[in-house]
Amino acid sequence: MKSPDIITEKRNQRWAWLWLSYSGFLFIKPILEPSRFAWIGTLIVFAIFVVIFAVYINDRNDDRPIRYWLIGAIFLLGLATFPWNGGGSTLFVYAAAFLPFVIESTPKVLSFFFVESLFVVAEGYVFNTPGHLLYVGWPNVFIAIFLLVLIGAGNIFFAEQRRAECKLRLAQQENVALAAVAERERIARDLHDVLGHTLSVIVLKAELAGRLLQLDPERAAQEIADVEKTARTALSEVREAIGGYRSQGLTAEMEQARKTLQSAGVVLSCESPIPQLNAAEETVLCLAVREAITNIVRHAQAAHCRMAFTTSDDGFYTLLITDDGGRANLQEGNGLRGMRERVQSLGGRLSITADPGVTLRIELPPSSTSRAVEGSLATL
Questions:
Q1: Global confidence as pTM
Q2: What is the per-residue pLDDT across 238-282, written as a single tens digit (0 to 9) for each?
Q3: What is the spatial distance between Cα 285 and Cα 149, in angstroms, rounded to a whole number?
Q4: pLDDT of 44 above 70
């Protein structure tokens, strides 16, 4: 990831122009030692620097090669100015201050500081004749090196902090995006489970009411009332699925399963007590029971359904749902796929076998929740 450049961020542009005030040190020389050459030269240097500075802070394309050239131009402008105007050392500082925001590697930045310092020292050796127009005193050399290293090193820390903040911000944005995708997938799974089950019940009861309309009008009216009740329940569950599924408990789900299977002429038996589960486990098992019952009603042509809660040898808590239907070929649709994803999200396992009926096996790992008995459906 490219490092963030605080100087070119739009929200910091106005403040960045205030940094231009440090270039005022260029005018100390012509003010203290006024001359035509000093003033004209300083104004030309200042104008060139302002243009470079403006191009730099208005760069929107995050084009690093251009920024390298701009920083290099500032440093070269400083080298051209320093021998006749000690305030030119300010340009060295600008170059050192910008570098950490363009180069992410701290060793590389420090090596550039070292090279810059060598050039400044070289000018001190070359232009070392007191009284000459082009004269660089050693005090000016040491001050220039001290400032470029001090401010540059400070900006290394600041740039690293900005990079960390940028990475955190990007990670947060990515998490939000992933959460949105996960939420869409959850809603899709829940809507499938909710509507797939309830619509199957509605169709089943509507068909039954149609057959009973002439034979037993009172029973037909009861079935139609159940259709209305189921439809209202489905509407409520869809709203819950959109806002986040809220399970009403495995006991209630098993009772609803009994009624649904009874309407389809299937007898449900439960051979063991329902355990006490945490909220996540109970929600997964509720939706699994709902999907399994829907598939039995739709496809199994079964007469009996058996549910059992057991504990496997490796400590996994197991729910077995078996029917005596005649399905031979099983294809995993959206419902089973969603069920498998939910089980796996808890570290569990799901398997389906058909011999001769269908057996759905859901295994959940041991949790901190005690496996006390909550109730029994032996009387169902």
A1: 0.46
A2: 766 655 554 567 888 888 888 888 888 889 988 777 777 777 788
A3: 64
A4: yes
Banded model confidence at residue 45, pLDDT cuts 50, 70, 90: very high
Task: Return the number of other C-beta atoms located less than 10 Å from residue 117's C-beta.
Answer: 18
d(CA 166, CA 327): 55
Token pair, residue 330, equals: 């099983």
Count the domains in the chain. 2
What tokens were used for 364? 């959940």
- Residue 21 sits in the same domain as residue 127: yes
Q: Which CATH number goes with the domain that contains 282?
A: 3.30.565.10
Answer for the pair 158, 3: CB distance below 8 angstroms, yes or no: no
Give the pLDDT confidence of 317-331 residue by residue, as tens digits.
889 999 987 665 666
Q: List residues bridging with 310 in a β-sheet.
A: 318
Domain boundaries, position 136 = 10-176
Q: String of b and e for 328-351 (b: at least 16 CB within 10 Å)?
A: eeeeeeebbebbbebbeebebbbe
User: What is the mean predicted confidence (pLDDT) over 355-378?
Assistant: 62
Q: Taking CA 153 as the corner, what is the angle to CA 148 and CA 159, rounded to the nearest 5 degrees? A: 120
Beta bridge pairs of residue 323: 305, 358
Task: Record the tokens describing residue 5, joined without a space.
Answer: 């450049």
The amino acid sitting at 294 is: T
Cα 149 to Cα 120: distance, rounded to the nearest angstrom: 12
Residue 114, Cβ neighbours under 10 Å: how many?
10
> How would DSSP label each residue in 170-231?
HHHHHHHHHHHHHHHHHHHHHHHHHHHHHHHHHHHHHHHHHHHHHH-HHHHHHHHHHHHHHH
Report which of 2, 8, 92 is spatially closest to residue 55, judged by C-alpha positions: 8
Other Cβ atoms less than 10 A from the Cβ of 12: the count is: 14
- pLDDT of 270-296, one tens digit each? 877 777 777 778 888 888 888 888 888
Contact (CB, 8 A) for 101 and 159: yes
Mark whether 125 and 274 lie in a shared domain.
no
For the segment 205-232, the average pLDDT, to the nearest whole number, is 81
**Token pair for residue 279?**
């909220």
Q: Are the C-beta atoms of 100 and 109 separated by less than 8 Å?
A: yes
> Residue 28 domain-assigned?
yes
